[in-house]
C-alpha cells in the first residue's frame, strides 16, 4: 500500500528563511536613490520590511539583497543575525543571490523591500500555509480595474473576466527545493511564483492585504506616508 503522508506535517518543523530583494534602483519612484533606502516615518523601506518579517514570529532568518556598494552600510545598520548579500541587475539575479545564501532553508519566503507596510499577520499566514503542506503560497487581492491585453500598437486584444484575475503580493512562500529548482534555469520574471508555475507546481493563493501594496510610484509613497501618519491604519 502506498504510504499516506499527512499534509499537515510535511513542512511542520522546517526552517524558514526570508529573502528580501532590495537591490532595485527605484527608477519609477524617482527619489534619486535606490528605493529600499527611501525613508518612511524615519525608517527605510528596507528596515520596515525586515521589522515586519521579524515581528511575524514566523521567520527563523532574514537575508537581504542590496546594491553591491551598500552591503557594508546595511550590515552595520540591520539587527544581528540578518545577513546581507549583493544583488544583481535584474530582480531575478538578486533573488538568485539570496537563494545561494540560504542553503539552510527548508521553506523560503521572498518579500519585496518595497512592500514596507505589509502586516506581520500576513507573513505568518503565508508560513502557516507552507507548514500545512502547500508547496507554493502567494497573497492575492481581487482587482478593481478592468484589465485588458493589448498588442504592440496598443490595440486591445482581449478582456479577461475580472472575476478570474488577482493582483499578487509578497511575501511569496515556497518549499525551498522547489524555488531552488525554479531558479536553476530561470529567465527573468516579475514574480517568483511565475517561475515555479513553469515547473508545473501548484501555487495556492491566500487572501492578501491592502497594506501589502508595493511602493512603486510617487503616489504610492504619498499613500504610504499618509498611512504611517495615521497609526490607526496600521496593525500594532
Ligand atoms: N529588486 C532587486 N534587484 C533588482 C531589481 C529589483 O532586489 N535588480 C527589488 C527591489 O529593490 C524591490 C523589489 O525587487 O524591493 C521589487 O522591484 P521594483 O518594485 O521593480 O523595484 P525597483 O526595481 O527598485 O523599481 P524600478 O523598477 O522602478 O526601478
Ligand atoms: Mg524594477
Keywords:
236 residues; 12 strands; binds magnesium ion; 29% helix; binds cytidine-5'-triphosphate; alpha/beta; globular; two-stranded antiparallel sheet; 8-stranded mixed sheet; Spore Coat Polysaccharide Biosynthesis Protein SpsA, Chain A; 7 helices
Total domain units: 1
Number of strands: 12
Q: Beta fraction of the residues?
A: 15-25%
* Number of continuous helical runs: 7
Low-confidence stretches: 4-8
Q: What's the architecture, going by CATH?
A: Alpha-Beta Complex
Mean pLDDT rating: 93
The H-level CATH homologous superfamily, spelled out, is Spore Coat Polysaccharide Biosynthesis Protein SpsA, Chain A
Describe this structure in words.
The structure is a single chain. This protein has helices at 45-55, 71-77, 91-100, 120-131, 176-184, 192-198, 218-229; strands at 16-21, 39-40, 43-44, 61-66, 82-86, 107-110, 136-142, 149-150, 156-158, 166-168, 172-175, 204-207. The chain is an alpha/beta fold. The protein has a single domain (16-140, 166-235), classed as Spore Coat Polysaccharide Biosynthesis Protein SpsA, Chain A (Alpha-Beta Complex), CATH 3.90.550. β4 (61-66), α2 and β5 form a beta-alpha-beta unit. The N and C termini lie far apart (50 Å). Mean pLDDT is 93; it is low at 4-8. The protein binds cytidine-5'-triphosphate (CTP) and magnesium ion. Cytidine-5'-triphosphate binds at residues 21-28, 35-36, 65, 87-91, 94, 112-114, 214, 216. Residues 21-28, 35-36, 65, 87-91, 94, 112-114, 214, 216 line the site of cytidine-5'-triphosphate (CTP).
Amino acid at each position: 500500500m502506498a504510504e499516506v503522508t499527512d499534509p499537515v506535517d510535511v513542512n511542520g518543523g522546517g526552517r524558514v528563511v526570508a529573502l528580501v530583494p532590495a537591490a532595485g534602483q527605484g527608477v519609477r519612484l524617482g527619489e534619486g536613490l535606490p528605493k529600499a533606502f527611501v525613508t518612511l516615518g524615519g525608517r527605510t523601506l528596507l528596515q520596515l520590511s525586515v521589522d515586519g518579517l521579524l515581528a511575524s514570529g514566523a521567520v527563523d532568518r532574514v537575508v537581504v539583497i542590496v546594491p553591491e556598494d551598500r552591503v557594508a552600510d546595511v550590515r552595520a545598520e540591520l539587527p544581528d543575525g540578518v545577513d546581507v548579500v549583493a544583488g544583481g541587475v535584474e530582480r531575478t539575479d538578486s533573488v538568485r543571490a539570496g537563494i545561494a545564501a540560504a542553503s539552510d532553508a527548508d521553506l523560503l519566503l521572498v518579500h519585496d523591500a518595497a512592500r514596507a507596510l505589509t502586516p506581520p499577520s500576513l507573513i505568518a499566514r503565508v508560513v502557516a500555509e507552507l507548514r500545512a503542506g502547500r508547496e507554493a503560497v502567494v497573497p492575492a487581492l481581487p482587482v478593481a480595474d478592468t484589465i485588458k491585453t493589448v498588442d504592440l500598437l496598443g490595440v486591445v486584444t482581449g478582456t479577461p473576466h475580472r472575476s478570474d484575475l488577482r493582483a499578487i503580493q509578497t511575501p511569496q512562500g515556497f518549499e525551498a527545493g522547489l524555488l531552488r529548482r525554479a531558479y536553476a534555469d530561470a529567465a527573468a520574471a516579475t514574480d517568483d511564483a511565475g517561475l515555479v508555475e513553469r515547473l508545473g507546481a501548484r501555487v495556492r493563493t491566500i487572501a492578501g492585504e491592502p497594506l501589502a501594496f508595493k511602493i512603486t510610484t510617487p503616489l504610492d509613497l504619498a499613500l504610504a506616508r499618509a498611512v504611517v501618519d495615521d497609526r490607526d491604519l496600521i496593525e500594532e
